[in-house]
Structures are given as C-alpha cells and as structure tokens.
Here is the input.
Amino acid sequence: MTVAGAWICLFAPLAAALLITLTGQVISRRTAGVIATLATFVAFAGAVWSFFEVRAESPSDRENLSTLYTWLVAGNLHVGFQILVDPLSLVMMLIVSGVGGLIVLYSVGYMHGDDEERRYFAYMSIFVFAMLLLVESGNFLLLLVGWGLVGLASYLLIGFWHQRPEAVAAAKKAFVMNAIGDATFALAAVLLVWQTGTLEYFGVFDQVGSMSQTMVDLVALGLLGGALAKSAQIPLHTWLPDAMEGPTPVSALIHAATMVTAGVYLLVRASPIFEQAPHVQHLAAVLGLITLLAAGLVALVQWDIKRVIAYSTMSQIGYMFLGAGIGAYGFAIFHLMTHAFFKACLFLAAGVVIHRLDGEQDMRKMGGLRKALPRTHLAFLAGSLALVAIPIFAGFWSKDAILASALAYGGALGWTLYIGGLLGTFLTGAYTFRLYYRMFHGEPAEAPAAAAAPSHAEHGEGPRSMLLPVGVLAVLSTIGGLVYIPGVWEPLETWLSEVVPPLVVPTTAQDWGSSAIAVTLGLIGIFVARRAFYAGRQIVTNPGLWRLLEQKLYFDELYDALFYRPAVALSNVLRRDVEEPVIERSLDEIGSGTLQVGGEVARVQSGLLRTYALAIAAAVFVLVVVFVAVR
Amino acid sequence: MLSTALIVLPIAGALVVAVLPLTKTATAGLSFLIALGEVALWIVTASRFDFNSSQLQFSTSHEWVQSLGISYTVGFYGFSIWLVGATVVCSAAAIGYALWVGRDRPRAYHALMLGLTGAVVSTFVAQDLLLFYASFEAMLIPLYVLIGVWGGAKRNVATLTFVVYTMAGSLLMLAAVVAFGVTQGTFDLAQAGTSDNVWIFLGFAVAFAIKAPLFPFHGWLPITYREAPVEVAAVLSGIVSKTAVYGFLRIAIPKFPDPVHDLTGLILVLGGAGLVYGSVLAFRTSDLRGIVAYSSMAQMGLITLGLFSVNDYGLDGAVLQSVNHALITTSMFLLVGMVERRCGTGELGHLGGMARGRPVLATVLMVAGMITLAVPGSATFAGEFLIMTGVYGKGWGYAVIVALGVVLAAMYALRLISAVLHVRTGSAVRDEALDLRVGELALVVPMVACLLVLSAWPALVTESSFGGDKGSQVLTQRFR
Amino acid sequence: MNGPDVGWYLIVAAILFGTGALGVMLRRSPLVVLLSLELMLNAGNLTLIAFARQNGDLNGQVFALAVMAVAAGEVAVGLGLIVAMARRRIALDVDEASVLRG
Here is the structure.
C-alpha cells in the first residue's frame, strides 16, 4: 500500500488534464481552474500519504518499486511503467505537487479573464503529471519520457500567448535546446541497454562497476547533456531567459521551482553512475560554478524583472550542480527545495506587481511600490532575503551547506568551487537588492497612474487566490530551511542519505565558519546595491562590461553563427545543389526525354488501320523468313 | 479464409462501387462503408490471431502454376497483422476524406481507392514471390490513375515521374523475382532457400528503396506528394511505402544473408543520409505538403536503419515505427488537406494564426505534430528509441545520426505547427475559415487515438510482431 | 483416311488467308475488312482441322470451335461498331477513322 498514494499522486493531474480537454466548452473557465487546482492538491495529498507510509518502514527498506504494466518490450529489454517510491522521489513529489498546487491556485486569479483559460489549466495539469512522472519513474526510459513531456509542457506554456512572435520563438528555442538534451540522454540510455541489458535504476547501478571506464564516462556525459539542457546551465542555457515570455505562474512553476531543477534530480538520482565517472561529475560542478557566476553577472544589468529572476534561477541551479558535482547530494536537493519556495515566492510576488501594473515588466518604470502593495512587498522581501541566504531564511541553510561541502571537499577543485561560490553570494546580494530597491523603494516612476488607478485600488493587491499562495510561500521561504541546522537538527539529510549517501560531509565548524563569510559577502552585496540605488547609478559602471553583460555574453549570437546559420546554409546548399539540380532536374530530363521519344514513336501510330495491317503482314513475313533462314 | 477475405472484400467492393449507378454521395458513402467493413474484418482477424505464436496463421494455399512452383499462398505473421491494421485504418480515413470533400467521378475514384487497398493488403499477406510481385504492381495502376486524373495542376508531370521511377523499380524486381524463383525452383517463400547472389538482392533492394523511398531514390517524392490528391498522398506515404518494409522484412533480408551482410554498411549509410537529408529539407521547404513529404522520407530512412540493424531492438522498433508512421503521416496529410481547403494554399508564408478561435484544429494539429516529432512518451518515441538502440549495434555513429534526426524533427515539426497556428493571421486565412468539423474530426481523431493508445502501450506491437520469438531469430532462421 | 493429302488443305487455307489479308490491307470499307478478317480466321480453322485429321485427335477441332466462338464475338462487336458508325453518320471508311493516331 505504500505506493498507492504515489500512483494517485501521479495520475490525478493527468485525469484533470483529460477532463478539461475533453469537456471543452462544457465547463466554465473557472471550473477548469478549480479542477486543475484540486487535482494538484489531491496529488499532494497522495504524496503526503505515501510519505508517511514510507517513513513507517525501516530505514534500510525504503525503496518501493511498483510496476503497473510492461510499457515497452524488444528482445530482452523489458521496460515497465513503473514508479520508484523512495525518500528521494518522495521529497521531489512533495515539492512538485505542493509548490505546484499553490502556483496553480495562484493562476486561477492571475489568468482570470484570459481567452483561453481552459487550455492554460489543461497544459498546467499536463506539466504537473509529466513532472511527477519524471521524479517518480523507476527506470531511465520512463524518466526520459517524463523528461521530454515536461519539455513539451514547457513549450506549450511558454508559447501560451501564441499571437506574440517572441513567445512562439522562445517556445521553439526552449524545445529545440531541450531536444538536444533529450537526444544525448537517449544516447546514454542506448549505451546502458547494450551495456547492462536493462534500464531499471537498480539493475543499472548494480552493473555500473563492471562497465569499462570509457562507457561509464560516455553514459555520464549523455546524462549530463540532458541535465544541462533541462536545467539551463552553460552551454545549453540560452533558452531560459527567453522563456520568460510565458505567463508568470508558468515561470514560477516550470522555470524556477520544478522543471529546471530536474537536472539536479538526475545528477543525484544517477549518482552511482556519476561516481564511477568522477571527471564528468566534476565537470558538472565546474559548469555549475561557471553558470552561477556568469548568470549572476548578467542579472546585474537586466531591466526586465522576470529576466533578472530567471538569471538568478540559473545561478542558483549552478549552486545545486556544484553541490551534486562534489557529492553533496542531500544538500543539492535541500537547496532545490528551499529554492522552490523562495523563487516561486519571488516570481509570484513579481506576478502580483505585473498583474497590478497591467503587464509592465520593466523595473525602470516601477518604484515606490512598497506603499501600494505592502503585503506583496513583505513577501518579496522574504523571498529576497532567502535568496541572498540571510540567516534564518530558507536559503541560508541550504546554500551555506553546499558551500561548506565545497570547503570540506578541499583540494584545488574544492577551493576553486568554494571561492567561486562565495563570489556568487556577493553577486546574489547585489542583483537581488538592485531589483528589490528599484521595485519597491524610491519615488514612484512614470507609472504611478496605473498603480493608483481607482479600478485597481478597489481590489487591493489582487484576488485572494493570488495572495494566499504568495503568503504561504513567503512563510516557507522564511522557515522552510529549518529542517537542517548543522550539528543540531538534520532530519532531511538523514532521510536522504539512506538512498544517496553523500561523498562529502562538512563538519559543524566548517559549516558555521563558512556561513559567517558567506553571509558577510551577501550583506556587502546588499549594501553595494543600496548605495548604488540611492546614489542613482548602476552597480556595473564600465560601459564595455555593461554591453557585454547586456548582450548576455553574446551566447545567442555565438550559437546563431555556430549552429543555426550553418544548418540553414547546409539546407539551402542541399536544396540548391543537390535536390534541385540532381534530383529534380534529372526528373525533368527523364520526363522530357520520355515525352520526346514518345512523340517520335507516336508518329508511327498513324491511325490508318490498313497501314497497321500492312505492318503486321510485313512483320510476319520477316519473321517467317528469319525462322526459315535460321533453320 | 480470413486472409483471402481481407483481400477480396475491398476488390469486390471496388467492382460493386464501379458498377452500381448510385448518386455521387451514395457511391462515396458505400465505398466508405466498405472500407469500414474492412476495418471490422481486420478487427475480427486480429482478435482471433494468436499473438504468442510466430507461425504463419490464417494461411491459405492454392496451386496456381504447378510446373513453375507458383502458388496463391497468403497468411499472417504478427507484423503483417499490424501492417494490415494500419493499412485498413488509414485507407478508411483516406476514403472518408474523399467522401467528405466529394471527389469528382466518384465511381471511378472510389473503385480505384478500394482496389488500391485490396492490393496493399494482398502485398502484406503474400507468401509467394510472384503473388507479392503481382500485388506490388497492382498497387501502382490505381495510383497512376488517381494521381493523373485527380491530381493538381502539374499532375501529368507528377504521374509521369512516378510511373518512370516505379516502373524502373518494378522491372528490376521482376527480373530479381524470376531469377530467384527459377534458381530456387519455387516461388513459395516458405519453401525457397537463401541465395547469395548480390545482383538478385540488389534488384529487390533497389525496388524497395524506390518505393520507400530511400535517398537517393526519392526523385519522385516531392512532386508526387505535392500534386496528388491529399488523401492519395496520405495513402502513398502512409501505407504504400510500408510495402517496402514488408519486402525487406520478408524477402530481402532473410533470403540473402550474404549480400545483406556485405551491403549492410551501404544501406545503413543511405538510410542515415535519407534521415538527415529529408529532415534538413523538411526544415527549409516552404509548403506544408513539402514538410510532411520530406519528413516521411526521413522516417523511412529511420525505419530502414532499424531493419538493417537486424537485431531484436531494431526490428521491433522498425515494425512499431512503420505502424506509427502510417498513422501519423496519414493524419498529417489529411490535416494539411483540411488546412489547404480552408486557405486555398499550403504555402507557409500565407498561413498563420489559425489557433485563434479554432481550438479543435489547434489541439489536434498540436497532438499530431508532437507525435511527428517523437516527443518522449509517444509511440514514435518508443519506435525511434528502439531503432536507435538497434542501430547502435552496427556502429555508434548511426545512433548519433538518429539522435541528430530527433533534434531536426523537432525543428521542422515546430516550424510547421507555428506556421499554421501561431503568430499573426496569415494572408490566406480568412476569419470565417471554420474550425475542424465533426466529419473531419471523425476521420483524424480515430487515427490519433490509435497513436495515443500505442503511446501508452507500445509493447502491444513490439511484443507481438514476431510472436513469442525474437525478431532476429525469425529473420535469420525461420524465414530462410 | 481417304481424301486429299493435308498439303491440299494447306494450300486452300493459304489462298483463303492471302485473300483475307489482301482484303484487310486494301479495302476501305469496314464491312469488307471485317469479312476479310473472317476469311483469315477461317483459313486458320481450316489449317487446324486439317492437322487434327492428320494427327487423328480432337485437339485441333476443339481449338477450331474456340476460334469460331471468338470470331462470332468479334463479328458481333465489329458489326455493332459499324452500325453505330452508320447511325452517327460517320463515313464508313477505315482511313477516315484515324482519331487514335499518335
């Protein structure tokens, strides 16, 4: 019975998606929202049920594999539609369905009045289903299925407002980049099939030791490729900022709280493979470090509030990659969890602001919103403090645990990661509070009319369905990290280390010592942002650097030149030099040649019956002569 | 008996439709009913089929020309059941579409469509080489007429091209059939042994490569698919191309072990080239039919990769992908036809923004498009994954090419979806252009539903394609 | 086995056949062309029967019967065509009916 809750958790959102799609116009828009919300909370209830069932089991026996039926069979390969309910997947299920439920609830208010609310909620339900499939899957192929389906849902939701060319372009970009990741992931799965004959986690992990080093490295690289694309890490990151074209709750759910962190889940879930391929694992950590620094820098100069938060997401996932890359699995998942709380909180609070300002997202046109939106201000502040990892707030416990692990890891790699991570905390403080001050402090910019318009003032900060989730998430951002207090109270770490024993455990002294430095740096970052704001200047003052960062380090241009243009050029060359001249022209030749010959032959066909008869007689005569002569 | 009944029903139906002096609609309706009857007959057949057995089932054998060892031998293997299933469903949808749009001269048109169906079914169940050849040829004649009479503006060129290409293939195959049959002393596939003659093998292989089509034998494809009536293009790319798969599976691979062994590399390279080439062109071509046509070519390249990996993964994947591709390409062509009817053009530049106010069209096209690009979890994904796995056995490079094909498929499929549905309203899209009507839905939705069922349970096909045995065993032992 | 040698029959048949062939080639009236065709067929029949008699079995005779049946059918179709042409006031001249030229 331990898995019944997990199955309910998985299928409730799917049922909602089908119900909303098939009933179509029969149900009202609001009902669609209610169905989607309820289904997600049912999923959450299922996850909670499962959680208590599993917790009652003995710690060594908490891996429950349940197969519904055999999904795919070929030769000796059998892939079941199976779920694995263990401490790791349970944590993920709780995050996905819990945070997901809050965000879907928020959407009911946010999307109210949109033409196609039903479609929106159907997509959201599909997403939640796919994400749950991803985290619950018991084998790599089903994981890949969930992996691809969340990409699909992401595509659908980024491009939700499909009349906008930017949204459609962003959606396509996200899908294609993710398809690259899917492809490398699929190749890794192919290697596993040939090397181990199975795709079940445990079957694979048992045999990883007997694979050759090259093979393990290749498999790990393939999985890492998938993780990089899904989690928007350099070099497959360029889709995430563009993905902010989608509705804000989508950004909160998919592009902050859940889907983009799937890469981290994969690194942790497949840790037995990555541990056999330490170079690849370290590569993940290094790429995470590069991303967290680069994204932090770029976030300093963006004007679009959602893009700032998006770069911040990339940066925070960089920390998780860093943690997972050095074997601090529990802390990576812990940071994933707290990040889900505070980043969803930030996005949803930003959504309230955007909603209030009729879609305005440029922070230059904001300011002084503290008075107009007091509760949102508080929630945003809580989220920001959690993001900068100020003590007590959720991010403090998780981010500092990762940094302490890097310190404990030691060696050249450990120190590089540690120092880079510390620099990142400074950047985090700076960009987060640049955003915070710009939005909520100072004088109202040129948009006060909208903010103070009577029509808006009437319904306060927004409908209750929007404010409630923001409030809950603000509370979680504040206290959600209290499941790990180094040396005092470490239930999450204990819970997770059953399934993914960490490679590195920081001592309590390292933990608290490192925290002191990190918090100081974060505070310096906040201070720099505050000084810059009140002095009325930017944090980045060098114009060359500004341009470089504003152009997002020229990654888009680089990829355009490296991949898109060559692909188009190749395609054009194939059309111009192969398809048209060789294939189509040859056709014309064949066609016109045949016609010409036909024309010549047709002249013989005079239509004169007697000529035909004469021809037959002549032919017979010739044949007779031939036969006689030959004999 | 059931095998013969499946062949005879549409052909007899064709005669009835051709002769009965009914009104235009009644003729088309009768034809559609016959096609549905064929589907029902297939369901009966499938329900009585023992999917655990890898033996020939429902077989019937009659002497035809005793002295030459020619017989009328038909029967089903697991994979034939699935191929025939895809055939009857797709041709019913195509005939239904012809009914919906009301093709001119319905008696001739529907008689030809039904005759085509019978010929394709007969090809898939033929267990005698000469019967196979006769059925293979019998498919072509209706196609010539259907394209030549009911096609678009350049139908004459298209027909001529198609005739020249297919005749070239057919003649090669005829020579190969005769040479093989005479050297073996029988045309019965079950009794004939193997041959190591490369030329005979090439005769078959080229014929199938033209029919599939594989790169570089695809010269007839672009113009034929563009000029044919859209449902004929659907049948052509959906099911007629699968006769090549059956030919490879039943004849070319098992009967010529040595030539296959020697030439596998070449064919795999051609398959891979077709996959990449078709995908790249699909990405740049400027009309809907072009995209679907080139994507179809890419998919056939992929299926060939699976077949010629000659291992369990590749073979199971190839059969699954054949069924998937039959259903999805037929759906896509019919959808393209529906869009073209509304807008009067299939040029991407004139389309766009159709999702607005047309939720059903948007949903159906989106689902079909996602299955086309093999989003993970779809039946096409399962097929591609198995083929990728299978072809890895022949070299890692091929697996990488399949992976590349997956990415390219995403690019062209998304381009098609966005060009029709999204962004600003195209110049050819009038506001009063309707959403999909119930009649149209009734044609496309069943096929999409079949695909969704296969997505939820691809093992349905892969597990039973070769009965209880492994695909590689069946091909390398039983079929020899 | 009395009667003339098979050679005589063949000579008669050849003369008949030649007459018929010349008729088909030279005459322009479809009716006469048809008659000439029949003449050629009968020449064939005569040959068949002659050889059947020489061989002493029935195969040739059976074949001749089949030819007669075909010839009867052919005449029916041919005469039908001629009547149809006459009704539509199409000139009864085989050289005029050359629409099917390439």
Chain A touches chain C through 14 residues (CB under 8 Å).
